[in-house]
Amino acid sequence: MLPPETPYRVGMSEDRRARAGLPVTGPSTVAQLLSSSPMLSARFAHIGLADWKRAVGERLAQKTYPERTQEGVLTVRVPSSTWAQELSLLSEVVLERLRGAGHRVQKLRFHVAAGKNPLEPPVTVVRRAVLPSALAACLARVDDPELRAAIAEAASFSLARKGP
Protein backbone atom coordinates (compact mmCIF):
# COMPACT_ATOMS: atom_id res chain seq x y z
CA MET A 1 0.00 0.00 0.00
CA LEU A 2 1.28 3.45 -0.93
CA PRO A 3 1.57 6.27 1.58
CA PRO A 4 -1.11 8.91 0.90
CA GLU A 5 1.45 11.55 -0.08
CA THR A 6 2.98 9.42 -2.86
CA PRO A 7 2.29 10.97 -6.29
CA TYR A 8 0.76 8.74 -8.91
CA ARG A 9 -0.28 9.62 -12.42
CA VAL A 10 -3.03 7.60 -14.00
CA GLY A 11 -2.41 6.66 -17.61
CA MET A 12 1.42 6.71 -17.57
CA SER A 13 3.27 3.55 -18.55
CA GLU A 14 5.33 1.80 -15.88
CA ASP A 15 8.52 2.58 -17.82
CA ARG A 16 7.69 6.28 -18.03
CA ARG A 17 6.76 6.41 -14.33
CA ALA A 18 10.08 4.80 -13.40
CA ARG A 19 12.04 7.32 -15.51
CA ALA A 20 10.11 10.19 -13.91
CA GLY A 21 10.97 8.92 -10.45
CA LEU A 22 7.35 8.05 -9.68
CA PRO A 23 6.28 4.78 -8.10
CA VAL A 24 5.73 1.95 -10.56
CA THR A 25 2.82 0.41 -8.70
CA GLY A 26 -0.47 2.24 -8.49
CA PRO A 27 -2.82 3.01 -5.64
CA SER A 28 -3.97 -0.07 -3.78
CA THR A 29 -7.52 1.09 -3.09
CA VAL A 30 -10.24 2.69 -5.16
CA ALA A 31 -10.34 5.62 -2.74
CA GLN A 32 -6.63 6.27 -3.34
CA LEU A 33 -7.16 6.08 -7.08
CA LEU A 34 -10.04 8.55 -6.98
CA SER A 35 -8.17 10.96 -4.77
CA SER A 36 -4.99 10.74 -6.87
CA SER A 37 -6.66 11.45 -10.21
CA PRO A 38 -8.18 14.88 -10.77
CA MET A 39 -10.16 13.56 -13.74
CA LEU A 40 -11.70 10.70 -11.80
CA SER A 41 -12.38 12.63 -8.63
CA ALA A 42 -13.92 15.53 -10.55
CA ARG A 43 -16.02 13.22 -12.69
CA PHE A 44 -17.94 11.43 -9.95
CA ALA A 45 -19.73 12.85 -6.96
CA HIS A 46 -20.18 9.43 -5.32
CA ILE A 47 -23.89 10.05 -4.99
CA GLY A 48 -25.99 7.27 -6.41
CA LEU A 49 -28.75 8.06 -8.86
CA ALA A 50 -31.35 6.63 -6.51
CA ASP A 51 -30.21 8.97 -3.71
CA TRP A 52 -30.16 11.90 -6.13
CA LYS A 53 -33.70 11.17 -7.36
CA ARG A 54 -34.97 10.89 -3.79
CA ALA A 55 -33.28 14.18 -2.89
CA VAL A 56 -34.48 16.30 -5.82
CA GLY A 57 -37.46 14.42 -7.22
CA GLU A 58 -37.98 12.77 -10.59
CA ARG A 59 -38.47 15.98 -12.59
CA LEU A 60 -35.26 17.66 -11.41
CA ALA A 61 -33.27 14.42 -11.59
CA GLN A 62 -34.05 14.21 -15.31
CA LYS A 63 -32.45 17.61 -15.94
CA THR A 64 -29.66 17.73 -13.35
CA TYR A 65 -26.97 15.47 -11.95
CA PRO A 66 -24.28 15.64 -9.29
CA GLU A 67 -20.84 16.20 -10.83
CA ARG A 68 -18.39 16.22 -7.92
CA THR A 69 -17.99 16.78 -4.22
CA GLN A 70 -15.10 18.68 -2.75
CA GLU A 71 -14.75 19.69 0.88
CA GLY A 72 -18.48 19.31 1.50
CA VAL A 73 -19.54 21.27 -1.59
CA LEU A 74 -21.56 19.34 -4.14
CA THR A 75 -21.34 20.71 -7.68
CA VAL A 76 -24.51 20.00 -9.62
CA ARG A 77 -24.71 20.24 -13.39
CA VAL A 78 -27.83 22.07 -14.59
CA PRO A 79 -28.92 22.87 -18.16
CA SER A 80 -29.68 26.56 -17.53
CA SER A 81 -29.67 29.30 -14.92
CA THR A 82 -33.43 28.79 -14.55
CA TRP A 83 -32.87 25.23 -13.37
CA ALA A 84 -30.10 26.43 -11.05
CA GLN A 85 -32.51 28.95 -9.52
CA GLU A 86 -35.20 26.33 -9.03
CA LEU A 87 -32.75 23.94 -7.41
CA SER A 88 -31.27 26.68 -5.22
CA LEU A 89 -34.74 27.39 -3.79
CA LEU A 90 -34.89 23.74 -2.75
CA SER A 91 -31.27 23.50 -1.58
CA GLU A 92 -31.99 23.11 2.13
CA VAL A 93 -34.44 20.27 1.50
CA VAL A 94 -32.04 18.62 -0.96
CA LEU A 95 -29.12 18.91 1.48
CA GLU A 96 -31.21 17.48 4.30
CA ARG A 97 -32.23 14.49 2.17
CA LEU A 98 -28.67 13.86 1.00
CA ARG A 99 -27.37 14.02 4.56
CA GLY A 100 -30.14 11.63 5.59
CA ALA A 101 -28.83 9.21 2.94
CA GLY A 102 -25.36 9.40 4.50
CA HIS A 103 -23.68 11.95 2.23
CA ARG A 104 -21.50 14.60 3.85
CA VAL A 105 -22.68 17.58 1.84
CA GLN A 106 -22.83 21.05 3.36
CA LYS A 107 -23.49 23.25 0.33
CA LEU A 108 -24.70 23.06 -3.26
CA ARG A 109 -22.97 24.79 -6.15
CA PHE A 110 -24.35 24.88 -9.67
CA HIS A 111 -22.54 24.44 -12.97
CA VAL A 112 -24.61 25.61 -15.92
CA ALA A 113 -23.73 23.48 -18.92
CA ALA A 114 -25.98 23.28 -21.93
CA GLY A 115 -26.38 19.96 -23.64
CA LYS A 116 -27.71 16.56 -22.85
CA ASN A 117 -27.51 15.02 -19.44
CA PRO A 118 -24.67 12.46 -19.74
CA LEU A 119 -26.67 10.03 -17.62
CA GLU A 120 -29.30 9.70 -20.32
CA PRO A 121 -28.76 6.67 -22.53
CA PRO A 122 -27.32 7.57 -25.92
CA VAL A 123 -29.56 7.50 -28.94
CA THR A 124 -28.51 4.69 -31.24
CA VAL A 125 -29.16 5.03 -34.94
CA VAL A 126 -29.74 1.64 -36.51
CA ARG A 127 -29.24 1.46 -40.25
CA ARG A 128 -30.55 -1.23 -42.53
CA ALA A 129 -29.40 -2.15 -46.01
CA VAL A 130 -31.53 -3.42 -48.85
CA LEU A 131 -30.96 -7.14 -49.30
CA PRO A 132 -29.41 -8.19 -52.60
CA SER A 133 -31.84 -10.07 -54.86
CA ALA A 134 -29.79 -13.30 -54.65
CA LEU A 135 -30.00 -13.27 -50.85
CA ALA A 136 -33.71 -12.44 -50.92
CA ALA A 137 -34.27 -15.41 -53.25
CA CYS A 138 -32.41 -17.73 -50.87
CA LEU A 139 -34.42 -16.42 -47.91
CA ALA A 140 -37.66 -17.09 -49.78
CA ARG A 141 -36.88 -20.79 -49.54
CA VAL A 142 -36.85 -20.70 -45.70
CA ASP A 143 -40.16 -22.24 -44.58
CA ASP A 144 -40.45 -20.70 -41.11
CA PRO A 145 -41.63 -17.05 -41.45
CA GLU A 146 -40.18 -16.00 -38.07
CA LEU A 147 -36.80 -17.51 -38.88
CA ARG A 148 -36.88 -15.94 -42.36
CA ALA A 149 -37.63 -12.51 -40.86
CA ALA A 150 -34.88 -12.88 -38.24
CA ILE A 151 -32.27 -13.85 -40.85
CA ALA A 152 -33.35 -11.02 -43.16
CA GLU A 153 -33.13 -8.49 -40.33
CA ALA A 154 -29.68 -9.71 -39.24
CA ALA A 155 -28.41 -9.67 -42.83
CA SER A 156 -29.80 -6.16 -43.35
CA PHE A 157 -28.03 -4.83 -40.24
CA SER A 158 -24.80 -6.60 -41.16
CA LEU A 159 -24.79 -5.31 -44.73
CA ALA A 160 -25.48 -1.75 -43.48
CA ARG A 161 -22.43 -1.88 -41.21
CA LYS A 162 -20.16 -2.97 -44.07
CA GLY A 163 -21.34 -0.21 -46.36
CA PRO A 164 -21.95 -0.33 -50.10
- Gyration radius over CA: 25 Å
The main β sheet shows up as: 3 strands, mixed
Average predicted confidence as pLDDT? 77
The number of E-state strands comes to 3
The structural class is mainly alpha
Provide the β-strand percentage band. Answer: 5-15%
Number of domains: 3
Structural shape: elongated
Question: In what order do the strands lie side by side in the largest sheet?
Answer: 1-2-3
CATH class of the largest domain: Alpha Beta
Structure keywords:
164 residues; mainly alpha; GMP Synthetase, Chain A, domain 3; elongated; disordered N terminus
Write up this protein.
It is a single chain. The protein is mostly helical. It folds into three domains: 1-43, no CATH class; 45-112, DnaA, N-terminal domain (GMP Synthetase, Chain A, domain 3); 133-162, no CATH class. The chain is 48% helix and 11% strand. The protein has nine helices and three strands; from the N terminus they run αααααββααβαα. The chain has helices spanning 14-19, 30-36, 38-43, 49-56, 58-63, 81-89, 91-100, 133-140, 145-162; strands at 65-70, 73-78, 107-112. The chain has a three-stranded mixed sheet. A hairpin with a 2-residue loop joins β1 (65-70) and β2. α4 (49-56) packs across α7. The chain starts with 13 loop residues before the first helix and ends with a helix. Mean pLDDT is 77; it is low at 1-6 and 38-43.
